[in-house]
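Data availability (excerpt). The following record was deposited with the supplementary files.
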Amino acid sequence: MSIKIKIERNIAEKSIKNYVLFCDENFKIHGLDKLSLANQSSVINKTIINNKQKDETFLSFNINPNQKIILVKLKNSSSSLENEEIGAKYYNFIKKNSIFNSTFFENNIIKASSKKSDFTDEFFHGIQLRSYEFNKYKSKRKSDFFVISILSKNKLINLKKNNKFDSLIQGIALTKDLVSEPGNILHPDEYAKRILQLKKIGLKITVLDEKKLKKLGMNALLGVGQGSIRGSYLVTMEWKGIRSNKKPIAFVGKGVCFDTGGISLKPAKFMEDMTYDMAGSAVVVGLMKNLALRKAKINAVGVVGLVENMPGGNAQRPGDIVKSYSGKTIEVLNTDAEGRLVLADALTYTEKKFKPQFIVDLATLTGAIIVSLGSEYAGLFSNNEKLTKQIFDAGEKVGEKVWRMPLHKNYDKLMNSNNADMQNINYTGGAGSTTAAQFLQRFILNKTPWAHLDIAGMAFSKYGGALNSGGATGFGVRLLNQLVEDNYE
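Predicted structure:
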């Protein structure tokens, strides 16, 4: 459903079918005596009295045969996240009741929300987050659209685009679009081309193809993609938001565009979900677009490894040994533990090339994290207490929650190999997410502060959440944007 928000100054009251009013927890409608509905106040107040015992956020009723009121009850004190969730619930309400596809907001919205100046933006941001749909490939798309009109007689009131929220919406939408694309469309070749389009918003894009990757010695990443007819790539996105030579912050994403498991083939059931195995990279791409659009006062770099893991005649075999970009050798015991191979080269390259203040990587890395945390928290692994706290706090603020999981040198023995420096899977069983993170940590060579987010349970939802419809969630863009806002700008 498309959303259009506008201000109306000269509109006949009788032409308005659906009014929206905001009230506080005591059902008091602030500012009503100054509004165009003042002559209906007795009807409204009577209806409120009759419905006060209902514990509902939204109350709709007729004030005459041709006009309805939608009453939105707000908490007297609420966080930004709660304001966004109210907006998302409002979208659910009007979608369920299609007669409200055009609604007019009386300009009492601020007065009813403890005079919080940014409530309006947060409320409408929640609507936009919840209204995302991916219907690109439906031959008969719904033509529904939702018009929000803010009534105002004050000529000084303008509906200015809030760059913070607009850029965030665009970044999240890009992430969701990328994750939602089928594997036959968004293969690594196409993905690299789409990232190149971000040059026009000020990002410096560098694409390293197979020839360049071979020259650099990124054999861990290349090994994953060698069974596919598609290319393999490492793509970097640089944003220079401050002129100083201050070290950038870095974000790294796993971009396995489709994961069959390779020779260690996955079961057929639910394999179609493996189009989402590039969600970590999509978060990085969406985040970088957001930072560029809002002209973030930070130097940042995004790095994504793009591959397709296929069981072709040239595919990597279980038992193969590859030499990574770091110089460390890896025995590939299971070709379905491929994401960590892609990230191994990407992490070392990011650390050596950009010498960042910190690195955060994101990946749909293990099914084990879903066993541990379900679809409520992403797994957080880190070598740095400060960065851990910053990420945790940012997640709590925006509702993208993380839970810290352990790293310890004793887990290393589970990943040691008799034939190489390490193996890519723990065959003794247990601690699947931790041993994967422990593997990744070996490719942080210079003790750079680093955090790994295993988002396997968070990148996609069949049922949707408070701020997301079902499908791709965009989890991570809001979290990392908040991390940047709160600590590095």
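Summary of structural features: Confidence is low (pLDDT under 50) at residues 154-159.
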